[in-house]
Write a structure and sequence with these properties.
The complex is a heterodimer of chains A (about 425) and B (about 170). Helices cover about 10% and strands about 45% of the residues of chain A. Chain A has 3 helices and 32 strands. In chain A, strands 1-2-31-30-29-28 form a 6-stranded antiparallel beta sheet, with no helix packed on it. In chain A, strands 3, 4, 5, 6, 7 and 8 form a 6-stranded mixed beta sheet that branches. Chain B is built from 5 helices and 4 strands, in the order H-H-E-H-E-H-E-H-E. With about 170 residues, chain B is an alpha+beta fold. A 4-stranded mixed beta sheet of chain B has the order 1-4-2-3. Chain B has a single domain, classed as 2-Layer Sandwich (60s Ribosomal Protein L30, Chain: A), CATH 3.30.1330.60.
């Protein structure tokens, strides 16, 4: 493959651990050599002890993972400027850098850090962006991701999605111990994992509310599937569906007021929409086949879902208020669990291809489908809010891992836990509060 | 289409049972619940002395009753001959022991998506439930639950393991 510049990079995150929480580590399994050459000078630090967080390392890792940048090795740098006045563009033109990032972190008050950075166009010799932030130590990584987002957007013309989070489920089952399932939320680079729900029984299908403060999910804690909503602001949990039969596949409407669900209370798996304030239910599908895995279009008008009404599971689309369904996938005998990109122009789903269950993308305008992965047990794909990456679950050497792939299939990486399995990822919407 | 398939299956079962009853030709007069009791469970309740099963049949029945799992093909809830024999044995045992309640638990292998598998697991449990009802087990005594792909018996990623995991479990 012409872009198969395969390299394995350990980002130096591999041995990092955070308190008692198991941290996901990232390994790039396929990268690209093309991409904007960028030099990121280690940020200056004015303070006594070491800074709470190495901001420039976080930025460098973000940009390297994105597949849109070729991050130049620091050992080649001729100068290490931290201030605008110290930048000599000739030093960077020699290295063929097109973009340059400098910055500094200083302790402005006890526990307060002032972070500033500047982004330059090396050819033009001019500044493209520059910002200053004052935050507590706990926000330094978030600031680094925000800087990455700005650099990404200025250079590529598209918004970044570094300052976002992922939800996922871990299963830890050391020999002789009962398994523990955790619904966790971490930064998009796997750091700062927080346990949202812990259970001795399986958890699945986490779904972010559009404002990113609530997670709907399925729990088997009562020995059958029930749907809950966890509010991450106040820690409150609400049970929303425990009807007879299965209760699953929660999906938020874009206005956050309704939840699509799969229930079999009327006999077999059908899609319903629950009005969350009144709990009123409206049934959307009516077919003796399995209808499940609803996902809303970003404009709220349509719902895509999985149905085996034609004999095998395939993706269909229907109006969110009901009516007839249009079949969207025709290739192969298994296409399921679709969800939309934020621009509404494509969906990602799992497709059985050459015997494996793989992540695919379907463009809705011309109905062309592309299989993006070569693994065989992929599940739960979801787009990053900028539509450039898809995170999904897969299996590597018998272990459940998360992986991400760029929407064009060119860049791939794995998110691994040191112990246990990780699965059911869901990429958060943009975190408006932090921006 | 599925309904028709089910109807055919039901007819087949009914015919099979009718055949069974007439072969044995020893159904006690006044037996209230039709053909099913002719297939007596190991407890032997309801069996007149003349209906005693041969040792071989008894052994076969005990062997079937010891099996609490029936298996399915990928993305299928069709009950094959092997599964049918097991379900029939349990159904007649349940008919003969009316105090028992049964839980049917549907499960899937790890392939495919979790939510689709949750629905597929339910369909497997329901397929067993329907057959048991046809065989005379009251619906009020049957509970179904699906665990989708969440409760694998076997953790390897190959067909022999996947087959073990694609199952309905009969519990009472």
């Amino acid at each position: 493959m012409r872009f198969a510049a395969k390299w394995i990079v350990s980002l130096g995150l591999l041995l990092w651990s955070f308190g008692a929480q198991a941290v996901l580590t990232i390994e790039i399994t396929r990268g690209v050599e093309i991409g904007t050459p960028i030099a990121i000078v280690p940020f200056g630090w004015e303070g006594q002890a070491a800074p709470a967080q190495n901001v420039s390392d976080v930025i460098e890792a973000d940009l390297a993972r994105s597949g849109r940048f070729a991050v130049l090795p620091r050992k080649d740098f001729i100068s290490l400027p931290h201030e605008d006045k110290d930048v000599v563009f000739k030093d960077w033109r020699i290295l063929k850098a097109e973009a340059l990032v400098i910055g500094s972190v200083r302790l402005s008050a006890p526990g307060k850090y002032q972070v500033q950075f500047r982004l330059y166009d090396v050819f033009k010799g001019s500044q493209i962006a520059g910002f200053r932030y004052t935050v507590g130590a706990g926000m330094l990584r978030s600031v680094a991701h925000q800087i990455s987002d700005i650099i990404y957007e200025k250079i590529t013309g598209e918004p970044g999605a570094f300052n976002t989070r992922i939800a996922y489920v871990t299963r830890e089952a050391p020999p002789g111990v009962k398994p523990v399932y955790k619904l966790q939320v971490a930064d998009s680079d796997g750091f700062n994992p927080q346990t949202v729900v812990r259970s001795p029984e399986s958890l699945m299908s986490p779904a972010w509310s559009p404002e990113g403060k609530r997670l709907a999910y399925v729990s088997f804690e009562d020995k059958r599937s029930k749907v809950y909503i966890q509010n991450m602001t106040d820690g409150r949990r609400t049970m929303v569906a425990e009807f007879t039969g299965i209760n699953g596949a929660p999906a938020w409407s874009p206005d956050g007021r309704r939840l699509a669900l799969t229930l079999s209370r009327d006999g077999n798996a059908e899609i319903y929409v629950m009005q969350l304030d009144t709990r009123a239910l409206r049934r959307l599908t009516s077919d003796p086949a399995i209808d499940t895995e609803a996902a809303w279009s970003p404009d709220g008008r349509d719902i895509v879902f999985t149905s085996d009404r034609a004999g095998t599971p395939q993706i269909y689309r229907m109006n969110a208020s009901g009516g007839s369904a249009e079949r969207l996938t025709f290739e192969g005998d298994y296409n399921a669990r679709a969800s939309y990109a934020a621009d509404g122009k494509s969906i990602t789903f799992i497709s059985r291809s050459q015997g494996g269950f793989r992540v695919a993308v379907l463009r809705l305008d011309n109905r062309t489908a592309q299989v993006l992965t070569e693994t065989s047990l992929d599940e739960s794909p979801s787009f990053a809010p900028n539509g450039r990456m898809i995170i999904y679950a897969t299996e590597v050497r018998g272990r459940g891992v998360l992986a991400s792939v760029s929407a064009d299939g060119r860049v791939r990486q794995l998110f691994k836990l040191e112990e246990g399995d990780v699965r059911e990822p869901a990429w958060s919407p943009y975190n408006r509060e932090l921006q | 289409m599925k309904n028709r398939k089910y109807l055919v299956a039901s007819l087949f079962i009914a015919l099979a049972l009718a055949g069974c009853a007439s072969d044995e030709a020893v159904k006690p007069a006044g037996d209230e619940s039709g053909a099913a009791p002719a297939q007596t469970g190991p407890s032997g309740s309801g069996a007149a002395p003349g209906t005693a099963l041969s040792d071989r049949e008894r052994q076969r029945r005990a062997e079937l009753l010891s099996q609490r799992r029936v298996h399915f093909a990928f993305d299928s809830s069709t009950i094959d001959d092997e599964a049918r024999a097991i379900i029939e044995a349990h159904a007649s045992h349940l008919v003969a022991n009316s105090q028992l309640k049964v839980t049917l638990e549907g499960n899937c292998d790890e392939r495919g998506t979790r939510e689709y598998n949750l629905a597929l697991g339910e369909r497997r449990a329901q397929a067993v439930e329907r057959m048991m009802k046809v065989l005379g087990v009251a619906g009020s005594r049957i509970k179904t639950v699906s665990y989708g792909e969440e409760k694998p018996l076997c953790q390897e990623h190959d067909e022999s393991c996947w087959r073990q995991n694609r199952r309905a479990e009969i519990g009472y």
